[in-house]
Amino acid sequence: LGHGTFVAGLIASSDHRCVGFAPAASIYAYKVFTKKQVSFTSWFLDAFNHAILRGINVLNLSIGGPDFTDVPFMDKVWELTANGIILISAIGNDGPKFGTLNNPADQMDVIGVGGINVDSKIARFSSRGMTTWELPGGYGRVKPDIVTYGSSVYGSALDGNCRALSGTSVASPVVAGAVAVMLSGIEDKRLWNPAVVKQALVEGATRLPNVATMFEQGAGKMNIVASFQFMRRYSPRIT
């Protein structure tokens, strides 16, 4: 069972033995890596174009890298969110040093997700802000945006049961699945846009009291109930 299948299961598995967040959601799976972990920008661009064409609502990217000079990739990420696609991405597993964020999670229009342990402490592997090396001129940007469980998270296994994996690649689909659940309860589809959802996640997050800096936890730990309530009473405002 591959990395992508596990991630998809976290979001939308309908198997009662290891159910996902949003089992009624439709999944579009894009294979952009070979078995040897080789990929090309053109493969991502093709996948992103298809996502735009199909009008998907939420796109999870459990990938990342320091390729800040890959202008076509970065521009296409902007195009995704400009088309109303809510983009959620893992910030990377290069912690605990600061300034280790990955792209595209470090971009402003992307919801960058870090990982915490079961005791709500920042996972050692989770990358930290600031945006000091991925984005030219990006020094000082607060990332991650939020954090959630990324250590020993249970998801689909080949034998039909569950298995545990760790990493921000796991934390990111936890948020993606939660966002899918949130949107299912919001009738006004004008609110189904990247800016509103990001603001709801940030405003609803719970600050972790024993974490020293915002470059480790961002706005804090995802709180799906508080974020959903924020969306239900949402009115546009400057933050």
UniProtKB/TrEMBL annotation:
- List the transmembrane segments: none
Task: Describe the location of the Peptidase S8/S53 domain by residue ranges.
Answer: 2-220
One GO cellular component term of this record is: Golgi apparatus
Q: What UniProt keywords are attached to this protein's entry? A: Hydrolase, Protease, Serine protease
What processes in GO biological process is this protein linked to? proteolysis
Give one Pfam hit by family name: Peptidase_S8
Q: What's a single GO MF annotation on this record?
A: serine-type endopeptidase activity
- Give the family per the record: Belongs to the peptidase S8 family.
Protein name, entry field: Peptidase_S8 domain-containing protein
Organism field: Brugia timori
